[in-house]
Batch of 4 targets.
Target 1
Amino acid sequence: MVTIENLHKKFGKNQVLSGVDLTITDGGIFAVLGPNGSGKTTLIKSVLGMVIPNKGNITVLGENIKKNSDYRHKIDYLPQIANFPSNLRVKELIKMIKDLRKPTNEDERLIQLFKLEPFLDKKLGNLSGGTKQKVNLVLTFMFDSPLIILDEPTTGLDPISLIRLKDLIKAEKAKGKTILITSHIMSFVEEISDEIVFILEGKIYFKGSIQKLKTKTNQPDFEHAIASILSDNHA
Amino acid sequence: MLKILKYSFYDLMRSRWSYVYFAFYLLLGVVLLFLNNDLSKAVITLMNVIIVLVPLIGTIFGVMYYYNSKEFTELLLAQPLKRSSIFLGQYLGVALSLSMSLILGLGIPFVLYGLFESSAIWDFSLLLVTGTFLTLIFTALAFNIALSNENKIKGFGYAILLWLFLAVIYDGLFLMTLIMFEDYPLDKVSLIGTMLNPIDLSRTLILLKLDISALLGYTGAVFKQFFGTSFGLIVSFVMLTVWVILPVLRIVFKSKKKDF
C-alpha cells in the first residue's frame, strides 16, 4: 500500500527524518508512535506530498508520489489541528470539498452519527474545538478511499464521540482499508491498532504487534513498554 | 484552478473590505466628476490616486489573504489538487476581485457622467488598464513575499517596504542619479529606469497620453517620442506583462518546493 525508502528530511538545521524505511501492507490499522518532535507528522505529511523530502522515495498504491497529485484521490487525510476558513459555514465547507473531490452521499450519515445537524448553518469560526474536530472527521470519512490517514483523531472529542469514532474506524477496517493513525492516547492505540510503528530520532525504532513490543521490552503492559523505550533512550 | 479561483473570489466578495474598496472608488469617481466638471483634470487626479493606492492595496490585500487563508490552503493541499493550481487560483481570486472593485467603482460614475460620448474615453480606459496591471503585479509580488516568509509580521514589513521602495524611494534615487550625471546624455538611462519600475511606467504612460508632456521639458520630448508612438506603447505593455509574468512564475516555482 505505502512504501517508504530511505526518507530524509531536514528543516533548516533540524534533521527530522534520517533514513526512514517503512512498508505498510494492505489492510489493517497501523499506529505511528513516537515522542514529541520525533517526526510523526513530518512522515505523514511526506506521504501526502505536503512536505517535500530531501532524499528518498515514497510510493502509494504503486504510484511514485513525486510531482504527482492524482494519487491523493486514494487518500483520506485528517489533519492534526482542525483550522478551517472561519467565515465559511459548515454546510458550505462540506459542499466545497465534495465539489473539489467527487460527489458522495456518505456525509449525511456521518453528520447524523456525530449529531452535527444543529451546526450546519453555523460559521466554522464560531464552533468549539471538539465540534470542529467532528466536522474534520466528516470531511475525512465521507470519501471511500482505500488509504486513511488520521493525525491525532481523538483531539477534543467527548467520550461518546470517541466511541463512535472507534466504531467508525473498525468499520472501515472491516472493509479492508488501510488506516494510519498517530496518537498520544495509549489506551486508544492499544485498543484499535494491529501494528505499531515506533519512530525515534528520525528512524524507525520498532515495527510489529503490541505483543511483540511487550516481549521485546519485557514489560507487562503497553504503556510501560512505550515508556521503557523512551527512558532507555533518553536516560 | 478555476474551482479554487471561484471559491477565493466568492470568499473575498463576501468580505467587507472589497466593498469598502469599491465604495471608496465610487465616491472618488463621483466627487471628481460631478463636483469638478473638468474631465482631463479629473483623470489626472485619478491617476495620482491610482498610481499610489492601487499598488498599496494590492500588496496589503495579497499578503493578508495569503496569511489568513493558510489553514484553507493546508486543507486544499491534502486534496488531489496541483500545488500550482491552488496558489494561482488564490492569486487570481484576489487580483480579480480587487480589479473588479477598481473597474466598477470608477466605471459606474464615468458611465453615468456620459463617458461614451466624451473624447476622454481612451484616457480613461488607459487608466483602468494600467490600474488592473498594477493590481496584478503587486498582488503577485505580495504572494511572493508571503510564500517566502513564514513570519506574518516580517511578511507585512517586507511588503510595505517593497511598496515604499517602488512608489517613493525609487523615484528619489532615480532623480539623484539624474542630477549626479547631468553632464551626460541621460535620455536612454531615464527611459530604461522608467521601464524597470511598474509604477513609474504606468505614470509616464498616462501622463504622455494626456498630452501634457510639454511640462516635462527635454526629457519629456524624448519620452513623448518613445511612448507616444505605437511602438513605445507596445513596449510599455510588454514590460507591464513581464512584470506580471515573472512574479507569477516565481509563485509556481516557490510553491512547488515549499513544505507545509
Target 2
Amino acid sequence: MSDNKNNWPLWEVFIQSKRGLEHKHVGSLHAADAQMAIENARDVYTRRQEGQSIWVVPAAAISASQPEDAAMLFDPADDKTYRHPTFYTMPEGAKYI
Amino acid sequence: MSNALFQYTIRLADDLLILSHRLSEWCGHGPILEEDIALTNRALDHIGEARNLLTYAGQVEGKGRDEDALAYLRNERQYLNTKLVEQPNGDYAHTIVRSFLFDAYHLPLAEALTKSTDAQLAAIAAKAVKEAQYHVKHSSDWLVRFGDGTEESHRRAQKALDDLWTFTGDLFAQDEVQQQLVKAGIAPDLTPIKTAFDATVDKVLKEATLKRPVDGFMASGGRQGRHSEHLGYILADMQYLQRAYPGAEW
C-alpha cells in the first residue's frame, strides 16, 4: 500500500465477462474501502458491457513471485515439452481439450 | 392536453439535461480519476434520458423540432428545469448533495412513470429506473462518507445541504399542467413521490449523521421558466456553437 497518507489504497480488479467464465484481471484502481472499490470498478471497467461480476482485492494482499527468481522458477520447464498433452492422438469429435 | 404533455415532458427533460451539463463540468477536474469517470458516466446517463424525452417532446409538439432544436435553441425562460439542478457545482459536497436530492426524487418518479398511460413516457422511464437506482446509491454512499467522515467533511456536507434545501420545493411544486396530467394518468401523483423522497433523505441523513434542514422558504418558479442567474451562463456555454454556427454538425 502507498506510504502517502493522502492516497487511498490500491485495489486489483477482476471482471467476469460471462457467467461460468473465470474472473480476469483487468487493472487496478484506488478506493477507500471494498465497497467504493466495487463501485469505482463498475464505473471504470464495465462501462462497455465488459462484465457481469466484479471482484476487488487489496493489492497489498497479493503475494507475488520476484522477477529475479524467474529464471529459477520457470526456466526448468523449458525443456520438458512432454508435459504438454500434445503427444496423444485426439479421438475424433473430442472437444474442449 | 398536448400542450400540457409537451410542457411536462420538457420539464422532465430539462432537469436531466441541465444536471448532466453541470456534472460534465467536472470532466477532467474530478477529485480522483475514478470519481471523474463516475460523474461523467452519470452525466451520460442523464443526457441519454434527456435526449429521449426531448425527442418525444418534439413529436408531441408537432412543429418539427428535434432534440437538438429543443436543447440548443430555447432561451432561459423556455427552460423548465428546477432551480436545484442549475446550482453551481461548488465543492464536491455541493455536487454530491445536489445529485443526492435530485436522485432521491428521480428514482421514485421514474418508477411511478413506468405505469404512465403514456406508453412512450413509460418506456423511457423503464430504461431510466436501473440507472437511477445506481445514482441514488452512488450519491448516498458519498453523502454518508462525508457526513460520517471527518469534522471538515461533515461541516461541508451539512453546509451544502443547508444551502440547497431551499431548492427542493421546486421538485414537488403543483400546478395546472401537473394536475391535468395526473388526472389523465400520464403523470404520477407527486404525494407518494414526496413520501419516498422523505424516506430516502431521512434514512441517508441519519446514517450520515447530518441534520435535515427545516422546511423554510422554498425557491420556486423553475417549472414556469423563472430561473436563478446561473442558468443563463449554462445555456451560453451549451448553446454557443449552435447559435454562432446555426445548423453546424459534426
Target 3
Amino acid sequence: MSTLHVLSHSPFSDSRLSSCLRLLTPGDGLLLCGDAVYALQGGTAQRAALELMPETIALLALAEDLHARGLVQLPERLQLLDYPGFVASSIAFDKVNTWL
Amino acid sequence: MKFAIALFSPPHAPSSRRALRFAEAVLAGGHEIVRLFLYQDAVQHASAALVLPQDETDGARQWQTFISDNQLDAVVCIAAALRRGVLNDEEAARHDKPATVQSRAWTLSGLGQLHEANQLADRLICFGGP
Amino acid sequence: MSQSLLIVTRQAPWSGPGAREALDIALAGGAFDLPLGLLFLDDGVFQLAPGQQPASLTLKDLQANLQALPMFGVEALYVSARSLNERGLSDGALQLPVEVLDDVGLSALFERYDQVITL
C-alpha cells in the first residue's frame, strides 16, 4: 500500500522530514507544501537528502508555495502540483499521511 | 472518489487555506466530500466571534460559505470546541456561557464522527500545522 | 470490511493538549470496535516514560487515558526503537506493553494500515 507523505513544516526547525525520510518505501511519494518546500533550498543538507532518495520515491511540491518563496534551481525529478494535481495524487497513492 | 477531510489548524494557518483549496478541487473534479471534521484548533473556524482586519482574508468565512454553498456535512469536535470557547446555543445554555457558533453550517459532535467519515470515505486527508 | 486506521502520536505529554487529543482519537475508535493501531514516534515516546509526576504542573494525568487503551480495544500499540534510543529511554521501563519496532518495522507498519493520522 503506497503512501503519499505530506509535509508543511520547515525542515530547518523540525524533525518531521528526517522521520519521514526513514519511513519511505518504494512506490511512496513525498509532497512538500508550506514551509516544507524550503527543503528544496540549494546547498543545504535537506536538499541533498531529497536528491539522495531512490528514484522509486516520487518527489512532489505544491507549486504555489514554491513560487511564493521564490525557490529556483529545482531538482529535475520534482513534480509541481496545482490543487487538481494534489487531488489526483491523493487518489494515485493508496493513502495520504499528513505530518500535522 | 469519496473524501473525508479532517482539519486540525486554526483559520489563520496556511494549512486551513490549503485545505479549502483542496476541498474546492475535490468537488470541481467531480468527487464527493463525505464529511469535513474539525479537531484541535480547527474548531475556531466555527466561531462567529472572529474579527479580522479588513485587508486580511477571512478564512473562517470562506470555509463557511463553501460549506453552505455545497451543503457539506461539517462536524466540529465538541470536546475540542468547548475547551476553546466554541459553543453553539445548546452548549451555551448547558454551560451557562455565551454562544459563539451562530451558523447552522456547523454541527457539534463527537470523535466518532471522524471515524465514521473514515469508514465512509475512500481517502482520509488531514490538514494541519503551518 | 472496516478500514483500519494507524494513529501516530508525536507530541510530548506536557506540550499542550496534542498528546491527549491524539489518544482521544484512538479511544473513540476503540469504542466503535474499529481496527486501530497507535504508534508512539519522536517526542510521542515521552508519553511512555516512567516516573512522570503530572501533579508538579497541576495537570491531569495522561496515564489514565493510556492505561485505558487496552480496555477500549486498542491493543495494537507500537513504539519506535530509534525514537526511544535518541531520547535515552529504555524499552524495559515503559508505562504500557508496546511492541518495539525498528525503522524497517515502522515502514512495514505504515504499509499495513488503510489510513493514517499523524499528529
Target 4
Amino acid sequence: MARTTAFQFRAGDSIFHRLDPLTKFAWVLTISFLAFGAYIAWVQIIITAIVLITALVFAKLSPREILRGTWLFLIACVSFFFIQTLTLPGSTEILRILDKPIYMESADYALASALRIYTIILGSLVFVRATDPRELAIALVTQMRVPYRIAYAFFIALRIVPTIEEEIKIIRSAQAVRGVDRQRGLMGRIRETKRYAMPLLVGALRKASTMVMSMESRGFGAYPQRTFVEAPQMGAGARVLCVVMLCCVLGWYTALAFGFVHSFYVFAPS
Amino acid sequence: MNVGTLYGIVVVIGAILALFAYMRNRGTGTVVIGFTLMEIVIMAIIGVINGVLGTPNAMLGRLFMTFSGSYGFLAFAAICGGFYISGPLCAYIIRKPGAATIAETMNGVAQVLSGNPNGVMVLGAGFLQGFMSDLAFAFYGYKRWTLGVVALSGALAPLLQQIPEVYFFGVGDMGLGYNLLALAIRMVSGAVYAIVLVRPIARGLAKAGVLRGTAIADEEGKTRLAGQVA
C-alpha cells in the first residue's frame, strides 16, 4: 500500500472535522496572527498548548500522527532553540555551558521563536487533516462569494498536492531506469530538485488538463452561478467562535500597540 | 529619514506605479479580461506547487536567520526570488491582466496550508508580490514579453511585500541602510530568479504540450509552423 502524505485530508467524526471549513481557516489565521504577535516564551507556550489540545482532543489526531507530520520541523525547531540560545546576546546570565554564558533573554526569545514556528506548522497540519478540500472550495463559493471556477481550480490544485510525493518517486524510478544516479549532499539535492521540477510540473498540468476537458465536456462553467446539493453552513456556535477569535487577535494587537504587553526583539539594538 | 518614512515612500511609489499602469491600460479595454478554465487551473497548479515547494525554502530562510544573527534577514532576502516565480511565470504563460496576482495569491494560500513557518503573513505577501509583478507587464500594455520585462516583474514583486515582513520579523529597528539593502537584495534576487527560470520553464511546458489554449502555446505553435527554434 502506498504511504500517504501527512499533510492530507482524512475523513473523521471529531468536533474539529464537523466545523465548517471557513471557521477552521479562521482558526488557522488566528493562531498565526497570535503566534506572530508574540516574542515572549510564556505566551507561545500557551498558544502551543491550545493548538496541541485542539489537535489531540478536538481533531482526534494521535501523537504518532502529529509526530509523523511534523518531526522534520520539530528537529529544525529544537535546533533553532539551541543555536539561538547559545548565540544570541543577553544581560541576565542564568547558567554556563562549557564556560559559555547562557542568558535569560536569549533563552526566552529562542524558546518563543522555536515554538512559534512549530505552532504554525502544527496548526496547518490540523487544518489540512480535518478539512475536505472540496468542502473548502464550496464554502469559498457559497460563503465568501469567490467565483466558482476559481474555487474549483484551486480545489483541483489541492487535490494534486498530496500526489506530489508519489509522483517524485515515479520520476526518480524512471530516471534511475535510464541510468541517472541519485545525488548526495546539499548541492546534489538542489540539482535533483531541478531535475524533478519539470517532469513534476508537466505531470500535474497534464492531469489537470484532462480534468478540465472532462469538466468542460459536462458543461462546467456554462453558467455564471452554480448551486450545490450540500453546502457547508456556518452555525451559531461557529459564528460565536469566529467573533471570539477576532476579539482575541484585535485585543492582543491593541495590547501590543499600547504597550500593555511588552514585545521585544533581541536582535534589535535598544 | 527613519524606516517608517522609508516604507511610507515605498507605499507611495507602489501606488504611483499602480496608477500609472492603470492609466496605461485604461483605454485598451485590458484592465479586466476573463480567464478560461484551463488558464485558471494553470495559475492554481503553478501557484500551489510553488507554494508547497516554498515551505522548505522558508525553512531554509529560517535557518539563515538563525545562523546569521542580525544579518539573517539579508541572507534570507537572497533566496526570496524563489517565492516570486509563480507570478511572472503565470503572467508570461497566460499574458492576461491579473494572472500574476491570482497565481501568487493561490501560492500564499498553499503556503499557509502546507505549514509555512511564516504563517498568515504569506497570504498578504502573496497578493502584494503578485500585484506588483503584474504591474511590470501592465506598463507595456501586456504586449511586451521580453526578458527585460520578465526581470522587471520579478524585481518589482518584493516592493510592497517586504513591508509586512519588516513588521513581523521586527527588523524595522535595524536602521535605514539595513532595510534599504534588504529591499535591494530582494529585488535583485527576484530579477535573477525570473531571468533564469521563467522563460525556460514556460517554453519547456509549452513544448511538452500541457499549456493548450494559452498565449504561449499559440506562440510556440506559430514558431514551430515557421520552422524556427524558440
